[in-house]
Structures are given as structure tokens and as C-alpha cells.
Design goal:
The complex is a heterodimer of chains A (about 250) and B (about 80). In chain A, about 70% of the residues lie in helices and about 0% in strands. Chain A is mainly α. Chain A folds into two domains: about 110 residues, RNA polymerase sigma factor, region 2, helix turn helix motif (Rna Polymerase Sigma Factor, Chain: A, Orthogonal Bundle), CATH 1.10.1740; about 110 residues, Arc Repressor Mutant, subunit A, CATH 1.10.10.10. Chain A is elongated and about 60 Å long. By secondary structure, chain B is an all-alpha fold. Chain B has one domain: Arc Repressor Mutant, subunit A, CATH 1.10.10. Helix content of chain B is about 75%, strand content about 0%. Chain B contains five helices and no strands. In chain B, α3 crosses α4. The radius of gyration of chain B is 22 Å and the shape is elongated. Classes of the chains: A mainly alpha (about 250), B mainly alpha (about 80). The interface between A and B is large, with 69 and 44 residues.
């Protein structure tokens, strides 16, 4: 949770140097903060806007990043982000303070994307009911042996962010579930509901997606010389062969 | 019931995403405390999750951030005058 605090700070300084709402109506603000917070219906419009600005707006870099990867087009991504925040503001009374705001906003993003921008996405999401017996029945072997997993960790630590984004984008049908679980931190049930797939499929796609992602990142790390451990290399080539024989489903 | 390595590894994502029951969390936590192999596995998956989160934020264009804020101010004004 603390890991992206840095990016939020820089986002704040670069984007909010136009007058924030908190300055525009500081008089209303102090009045609003004195009002009783328990009765949602009595929340003033100013208080609502202030809360929204402080809590929801800082999520914009993550929301915009997701929108960009989904639409693959900056102009569509901007429309999607605008729609998402407008809907979220309109529904702000329904958000329960103290619950997972990030998951709530990303739910709105997912819903907006599926309904307005890419009706195909919903159909694609439903295309295949995945087989998840594979991992349930114990295909849980590690990609690498214990001794080389610390080398894998070290290698992953050095990989550029672009490689991680690119690898995510290559996950096919697993991409969206991995993103919603890992970045949006949405509960499985919420992901299942938004994508119109069973919870078992969410689990299956998350497990397989993460495995595929680790394989891709490890391959890249070896190719580009981020890894020197020869044991890791031979482990990974085994993993890659295994992927090739079971792959092709994206 | 005690989780073995296979069961523990199978639950890695559900553990990290807080999708397990309290009883299962106890099982996993107890196993991880005594098993380097599984613990390293969990660390690795946790690390990958953090890397994904770090990599996937994009600073929005200034114009977009301003538009979103302007939009909310306009909606707020609408509520005020309603």
C-alpha cells in the first residue's frame, strides 16, 4: 500500500496546482467538517466534493493507467476516466466510508468500460469457462527451485516497469482478472460479478495469469542478462517448454 | 487438519488477496512459519504483486485532471442550486 505513495505525491504536485476545491470554499469546508458525519443524507454538497477530492481523486494515476491499458488509446482512456469519476461522484453517498475505496472506484471503471466503451469485452470475458482443475488438482509446482527463487526475486526487482506492463498486456483472457485482483484489490466476488463469470473462473484466471506473468518476466530477465544464476536458467527453460505445450489459449 | 506444502502453495493467491476463512488463514500461517520453501513462494508472489502495482500507475495529463475536477465542481454547483 505504501509503495505507490510516491507516485501519488508527484501526481498531486503536478496536477493540482490549479486551485483545489478546498481553497475555493474554505468557509464551506469548515462548516462542513463541523457537521455531524453520521447522517449521510445531511452531508452538504461542499463536504461531499471535498471528501471526494481528498479520497477519490488521488486514485487517478492508477485508474488512468488501467484505462490506458484497456482502451489502448489515450483519448478513449481520458473519456473513460472522466466518466468513471463523474459516476463515482454521483454515487458518493452510496460509498461506505472505511470500506475499500480503491475496489469501489475500479468497480465503476470496469462497469463503465464494459457497458459503454467495449461491449465486446463482456462477450470476450464470457467466451470460455476455464478449466481450473489443473491447479486445483495440484499443479502447484514452483517455477523455480527453492535455491533459485531468491535469484528470481532479485532479477524481478531490477526489471523496468515497461516490461511488467507489456507482459500484463500479453496475458490475454487472464489480464483483466490479474489487474482487478492485484491493482484494484477487488474481492473475487466483485470481479466475478463485474465480468459476469463464476468465482471459480476468477480464481483460475488469477492463478494461471500470475504463473504466466512470472514465466514471461523470468524469460525476459534471463534474455536481458538480469540473471546470472545458471540453475535459474535451466529451471526457467523447463518452465518455458511446459508453457509452450499447454499454451495457446489466450 | 493441517495443510501440507501442496495445499499451502495452492492457497497462495487466496491468502494474499484475503479470500480465505479464518481457519484456513491459521493453517497457512502455521505452515509458512515452518517451511522455507512455501514462505519463499509467498514472498515471491507478494513481491510480484507489489511490482505490478508500482509499474501500473500512469500520471494523467494535466488537462484530464483539470477536466475531472471542473466536472465535479460543476456537479457540486448543480447540487447547491437544486
Amino acid at each position: 500500500m505504501t509503495s505507490y505513495a510516491g507516485s501519488l505525491v508527484s501526481f498531486k504536485t503536478t496536477t493540482l496546482n490549479s486551485k483545489p476545491m478546498s481553497e475555493l470554499n474554505s468557509a464551506q469546508k469548515s462548516a462542513a467538517t463541523e457537521a455531524t458525519p453520521k447522517a449521510k443524507s445531511t452531508k452538504s454538497a461542499a463536504q461531499k466534493a471535498l471528501e471526494f477530492e481528498q479520497l477519490a481523486i488521488p486514485l487517478m494515476p492508477q485508474v488512468y493507467g488501467m484505462a490506458l491499458r484497456w482502451t489502448k488509446n489515450p483519448s478513449d482512456a481520458e473519456d473513460l476516466v472522466q466518466d468513471t469519476f463523474a459516476k463515482a461522484f454521483n454515487a458518493w453517498d452510496q460509498f461506505e466510508q472505511g470500506t475499500n475505496l480503491k475496489a469501489w472506484i475500479f468497480r465503476i471503471l470496469t462497469n463503465t468500460q464494459i457497458n459503454s466503451y467495449n461491449k465486446k469485452a463482456k462477450d470476450q470475458a464470457k467466451v470460455s469457462i476455464d478449466q481450473f482443475e489443473e491447479w486445483q488438482l495440484g499443479d502447484v509446482e514452483s517455477l523455480t527451485s527453492l535455491s533459485s527463487r531468491s535469484a528470481e526475486l532479485e532479477a524481478l526487482d531490477r526489471l523496468p516497469a515497461d516490461i511488467i506492463k507489456q507482459s500484463l498486456a500479453e496475458l490475454g483472457e487472464f489480464q483483466q482478472v490479474v489487474e482487478l485482483a492485484v491493482i484494484a484489490e477487488m474481492p473475487y466476488a466483485a470481479i466475478a460479478e463485474e465480468l459476469g463469470i463464476p468465482v471459480g473462473t476468477v480464481m483460475s484466471r488469477l492463478h494461471r495469469g500470475k504463473k504466466k506473468l512470472r514465466e514471461k518476466l523470468l524469460d525476459y530477465a534471463i534474455q536481458e542478462g538480469y540473471v546470472s544464476d545458471p540453475k535459474l536458467k535451466s529451471d526457467s527453460s523447463k518452465a518455458t517448454q511446459a508453457t509452450e505445450t499447454t499454451g495457446g489459449n489466450s | 487438519m493441517t495443510f501440507d506444502c501442496q495445499e499451502t502453495k495452492r492457497h497462495v493467491h487466496e491468502y494474499l488477496h484475503n479470500e480465505l476463512s479464518e481457519a484456513e488463514i491459521k493453517e497457512v500461517t502455521a505452515h509458512l512459519a515452518n517451511c522455507d520453501s512455501c514462505e519463499t513462494d509467498y514472498d515471491l508472489e507478494h513481491f510480484v504483486n507489489n511490482s505490478i502495482q508500482d509499474a501500473c500507475s500512469e500520471v494523467p495529463p494535466q488537462e484530464l485532471a483539470e477536466k475531472v475536477l471542473a466536472n465535479i465542481r460543476a456537479m457540486q454547483a448543480g447540487i447547491d442550486h437544486a
